[in-house]
Write a structure and sequence with these properties.
The protein is mainly alpha-helical and 164 residues long. The chain is built from two helices and no strands. Helix 1 runs antiparallel to helix 2.
């Protein structure tokens, strides 16, 4: 068959050049471009690994900072509660001292008032005794017509007041 015999003669040189071109492309890409691509991939992998490590360090630092922050907040809260309790205790002591001072002042005023009342009562009783003695003298003189001395009238009034 002449068509098949012709294939080898016609296409032999084309197949030869095809193999040469494919070989050049293979070795060109394999030797020149592949190392650049591998270097780029390795660089990207290294960059990603470095970024991940930096993120982990930043995360650890953030956790440490947060722990420090929380400790300071807790210490400040405890300090504020302690100060509040101390202020409450001081206020309670101050209020108690004020109450005691007012109680003492009221007790003094009450004692003074009791003394004034007792003095007024004694003065009033003395005045009542005098008035009662005079009234008794007049009543006895009008009713019985007998004159009673002032001392007798005062003695009778005192005896009557003592018996109730």
């Amino acid at each position: 068959m002449p068509q098949i015999a012709q294939i080898v003669e016609t296409y032999a040189s084309q197949i030869f050049w095809l193999l040469i071109v494919f070989g050049l492309i293979y070795f060109g890409i394999g030797k020149a471009m592949l190392p650049k691509i591998e270097a780029t991939v390795e660089s990207r992998d290294r960059k990603i690994a470095d970024d991940i490590a930096a993120a982990e360090r930043a995360h650890a630092l953030a956790d440490e900072t947060e722990a420090t922050y929380r400790a300071k907040i807790d210490a400040a809260r405890a300090s504020a509660q302690k100060a509040t309790q101390e202020a409450k205790a001081a206020s309670a002591l101050e209020a108690e001292a004020r109450v005691k001072a007012v109680d003492a002042e009221l007790a003094t005023k009450t004692a003074e008032a009791d003394a004034r009342i007792a003095a007024s009562q004694a003065q009033a009783l003395a005045g009542i005794e005098d008035v009662a003695a005079e009234a008794a003298q007049e009543i006895v003189s009008k009713v019985s017509g007998v004159a009673v001395s002032r001392d007798q009238a005062v003695g009778a009034v005192k005896a009557a007041l003592a018996n109730g």
